[in-house]
Amino acid sequence: MSIPAIASTRNDALASLLDNAINNKTKPLGSLGMLETVAKQIGLIQNTRVIALEKPAILVFAADHGVVAEGVSAYPQDVTWQMVENFLARGAAINVFAQQNGCALHIIDAGVNHDFGPRTGLTDRKLAHGTHNFAQQPAMSSDTCATALAAGMALVAELDGNVVGFGEMGIGNTTAAAALMHKLTGIPVAQCVGAGTGLSADGISHKQRVIEAAVALHASATEPLDVLATFGGLEIAMMVGAMLKAAERRMVLLIDGFIVTSALLVAARLQPAILDYCVFAHCSDESGHKKMLDNLGARPLLQLNLRLGEGTGCALALPLLHAAVNFLNQMATFESAQVSEKSE
Amino acid sequence: MSIPAIASTRNDALASLLDNAINNKTKPLGSLGMLETVAKQIGLIQNTRVIALEKPAILVFAADHGVVAEGVSAYPQDVTWQMVENFLARGAAINVFAQQNGCALHIIDAGVNHDFGPRTGLTDRKLAHGTHNFAQQPAMSSDTCATALAAGMALVAELDGNVVGFGEMGIGNTTAAAALMHKLTGIPVAQCVGAGTGLSADGISHKQRVIEAAVALHASATEPLDVLATFGGLEIAMMVGAMLKAAERRMVLLIDGFIVTSALLVAARLQPAILDYCVFAHCSDESGHKKMLDNLGARPLLQLNLRLGEGTGCALALPLLHAAVNFLNQMATFESAQVSEKSE
């Protein structure tokens, strides 16, 4: 397994062409705000003045976490597989929003602690029945971590669209994500932990202590891939691989909430230019997400107090990406519409 | 012309039913954030547990403003009619976003300073070739204002959908809206004025002085309809009537940016319960909009640094309203999906 090389999208000549195209549209300068930023970014990613979003897809990676044995989640571990069943039955929020906004949905078993058997609509990439409990030992071996990365890359290599969103399901994975965030940013654990699916204040304190103890136990893990193997999840590791491959293929990456952004943190430590390819869908209500986004210099499109995961933020943000593409492709210019320009 | 009576949507029994329905969906409690608030609000507006958005429409009211003679806009007055032509040719931002999101668009000439003649796609409700210059005299007579309100009501009486967004076009109308905001909220003029389509700092200062002088000239105007006739625009007055009728018909009102919200300020002073029917699409970058929203206790869905008007924020927010309706109607419950509930 080798990490894909990711090139910066920087291209000053194209950037200037895109700025001109955006500024000549019949609207006051800059008045489409973040949509203008996104349109330009997509142009730089696609390396063209004529941008298009093709076959958007959301990949939802599911896996279980050994650390739930420490009592860090408000829901029992069985909810992971039960929610995968719910995805397959099209009853979850992500099913509803993906269908509404014309987005294909891929459900991937990266390591759920349940035997689904062969199932229509489920992509079986199970590497284990969940991770080990990182309060006692590394969540996975470096070999397993590398296999997960490679599996994520292979999945994205097969996609035929040019925009991919990331989602996840895994009881306990805000604990893994908070540990990754602490290790990769240096932000104190207390500012990385949150309520997850709905912990009480006491529950959050306990989660913090579990992470702090584990961080002390695994003090030697400092390199991004070591940190990922030690504290991550199989769904997180597979997502890291998928993100790297998507950027290598110059796709638009749609980043969801706290757990997905923790995977991006790992990917960005490996290949910083990956950030050029990322559109941040939303700022989650999960406590550490805003600081995580700030650490990445990211500005999210939506602030709706979501904290559901599954890629729901990606599906909800997708119409704004279409709006960015459509205004650039379809709006008249001052010249074509014979509208007078600014008079001062 | 009489002002429609608007009933509060408050209904504790229905609210409780809606809360239960929302909380039983397969997601952590409250995790869909503002979408849950909107779903409940739509239920209360439509007075049912089974909500639906039918035939969404955006009404774009266009008119000219005599106060542009004072040099308060970065663009010449001709841009108003030129942009109306652009709307009819489907070249403007609102055309692109309305089409993308399946929203009918009605372009209404409330008082543009131009003779269009009979035109397909243009609803002719022209009451004058623009308002008078409110720096010298009231923008319109109370009769004209009443006629504009009645015209707006009549337009909405004919709509066959149940969700209506409001947009506007009118060079100079941020000046009118800032004056309305000041008079109806008491917020100092300096905090009500902004760059509009792109004034310099000097331009903004000049606009502020023009408004302050006019406010001194028309000190006797204090009642909402007097204030509207004195400082408003024909598009703003027609929108006030349209909003009142839409709420009377228990439609969902989608509120756009600074000018549209200034019309709502007038309507809400006449019938405070209208706010129960309003979903606020976005917070504009026009300087006073956030304070205006705060004054109304409003929380907007989007913060994208838009400042374009035309109803663009409404069109962009519409998919989020659909998402609110769809999750309530389509998601599985914990029981139906056999997903375990919270364990603590």
UniProtKB/TrEMBL annotation, chains A, B:
Keywords: Cobalamin biosynthesis, Glycosyltransferase, Transferase. It is an enzyme of class 2 (transferase). It catalyses: 5,6-dimethylbenzimidazole + nicotinate beta-D-ribonucleotide = alpha-ribazole 5'-phosphate + nicotinate + H(+). Catalyzes the synthesis of alpha-ribazole-5'-phosphate from nicotinate mononucleotide (NAMN) and 5,6-dimethylbenzimidazole (DMB). This is Nicotinate-nucleotide--dimethylbenzimidazole phosphoribosyltransferase. The active site is at 310 (proton acceptor). InterPro entries: Nict_dMeBzImd_PRibTrfase (IPR003200), Nict_dMeBzImd_PRibTrfase_bact (IPR017846), Nict_dMeBzImd_PRibTrfase_N (IPR023195), Nict_dMeBzImd_PRibTrfase_sf (IPR036087). The lineage of its organism: Bacteria, Pseudomonadati, Pseudomonadota, Betaproteobacteria, Burkholderiales. GO terms for biological process: cobalamin biosynthetic process. Pathway: Nucleoside biosynthesis; alpha-ribazole biosynthesis; alpha-ribazole from 5,6-dimethylbenzimidazole: step 1/2. Its EC number is 2.4.2.21. HAMAP family: CobT. Belongs to the CobT family. GO terms for molecular function: nicotinate-nucleotide-dimethylbenzimidazole phosphoribosyltransferase activity. Pfam families: DBI_PRT. SUPFAM superfamilies: Nicotinate mononucleotide:5,6-dimethylbenzimidazole phosphoribosyltransferase (CobT) (SSF52733). The gene is cobT.
